[in-house]
Design brief:
The protein contains 8 helices and 20 strands. By secondary structure, the chain is α+β, with helices and mostly antiparallel strands. GO terms for molecular function: ATP binding.
């Protein structure tokens, strides 16, 4: 697979592949011409794409001639407009592979006299994927630089892989929630209700992608500082990189973001406190507007970060409120006006959400039912920070 994000590819980079005699590999293949409209051409591209998806993913580069197993020379494509060619290829893949492969990306790269097309195929966890040929089904995989049929044991392992990885993600989340609730993590939160987000990419659990923690530590950790933290810092630990408010934390952190080596992300923040609502009257309150905004924007940030790090395909999303029994949900317009909606259990943990593809998820569609579920844990009808008609996130004012 090419190292660069698709949007950074240009003719100069393609020419460098040729000048350096970049070799083909299990995740990279060069082809002189794009597939035509004949049935054998359709079968060939479906076979190539399914094989990559069933193995480790990779790139197919159309418009570079292969010579002796390496990039030889750019051969610009001129047979049809680039947009038309990509639409046709997408239609062939949709019709010829089942189940549909999530997260395939294509980009044309302008070259002197024409263009090249790079087709990026993610390692899939919805498979194994087969090629449909009339009434027959064929399962294939990459073996070095060639394509072979999958054995019975390989097929069985592929069918079991997604379920096993999903279960591992759920166990990871459950274990982390237990540690956070009992303040046994390396960075315990302050006492009180705790808002927790987990986003776990399946590709990371499978060992197919990791995060460059050193780059985040030195360059981009500030992107994970909360706007209300008043600054912050970062600390390595055995699991990954902890990003937290600065200064001494005698009673625990107010909030933190934890980036795990597998690409999993954990966000935590204090979600309530005992507040004076009138002279001589105190109530334990969870701040509902802040809660909605924390969950929504943390998940949005995490999805964007994973895409920037090159993760694709499925992930498991979890939101939770821990240590919340007896706390009321503050939903009045004024700070001192609270409903009598009270949590009836120590922890509010909705069922995890399985995300089919990190690249294509609608954050509003994903977050609304999760936040509705949390509000209903306090006895409220729904989260008031989504437009009831359109379903879009529309946080209240004040």
């Amino acid at each position: 697979m090419l190292l660069q994000p698709l949007e950074q590819l240009n003719e100069q980079l393609l020419q460098k592949l040729c000048d350096d005699r970049c070799p083909e590999s299990q995740t990279l293949e060069f082809k002189r011409e794009i597939p035509g409209s004949a049935e054998k051409d359709k079968h060939e591209i479906c076979k190539d794409v399914a094989a990559l998806a069933n193995t480790d993913g990779g790139d197919l580069v159309y418009g570079i001639e292969e010579h002796a197993g390496a990039a030889g020379a750019i051969q610009p494509i001129t047979t049809e407009p680039a947009d038309a060619a990509m639409r046709r290829i997408a239609q062939v893949l949709d019709a010829g592979i089942e189940p549909r492969i999530q997260g395939i990306k294509m980009r044309h790269v302008d070259a002197t006299g024409g263009y090249a097309i790079v087709l990026r195929v993610p390692a899939s966890f919805d498979g194994p994927h087969c090629i449909r040929t009339n009434s027959s089904r064929r399962f294939v995989m990459r073996n070095g630089t060639s394509t072979t049929d999958m054995s019975f044991d390989q097929l069985r392992g592929a069918f079991d892989r997604t379920a096993t990885l999903a279960e591992r993600a759920r166990h990871f989340i459950a274990d982390r929630l237990q540690q956070i609730a009992t303040r046994k993590t390396t960075a315990p939160l302050m006492e009180g209700p705790q808002w927790i987000v987990h986003l776990v990419p399946v590709a990371g659990l499978a060992g197919r992608r990791t995060v460059d923690l050193r780059s985040i530590y030195s360059k981009t950790f500030t992107e994970f500082l909360g706007t209300d933290w008043g600054g912050g810092s970062r600390t390595y630990n055995f699991d990954g990189l902890l990003i937290h408010p600065g200064g001494k934390q005698d009673h625990g952190f107010y909030a933190y973001n934890h980036i795990f080596r597998t690409g999993a992300l954990e966000g935590a923040q204090l979600g309530g406190a005992t507040c004076v609502v009138s002279p001589g009257v105190e109530k334990p309150v969870v701040w509902s507007l802040d809660m909605s905004m924390f969950f929504y924007f943390t998940v949005k940030q995490y999805l964007n970060a994973m895409k920037a790090w090159g993760f694709a395909g499925p992930a498991v999303l979890s939101v939770a409120i821990l240590n919340v029994k007896g706390f009321e949900l503050g939903i009045g317009e004024m700070f001192h006006r609270f409903s009598r909606a009270t949590a009836d259990r120590p922890h509010l943990i909705p069922a995890e959400l399985w995300i089919e593809d990190i690249d294509s998820i609608s954050i509003d569609e994903a977050m609304r039912p999760l936040l509705d579920n949390l509000w209903q844990g306090f006895g409220a009808e729904r989260c008031l920070d989504f437009d009831e008609k359109t379903g879009t996130f529309a946080p209240r004012r004040g």
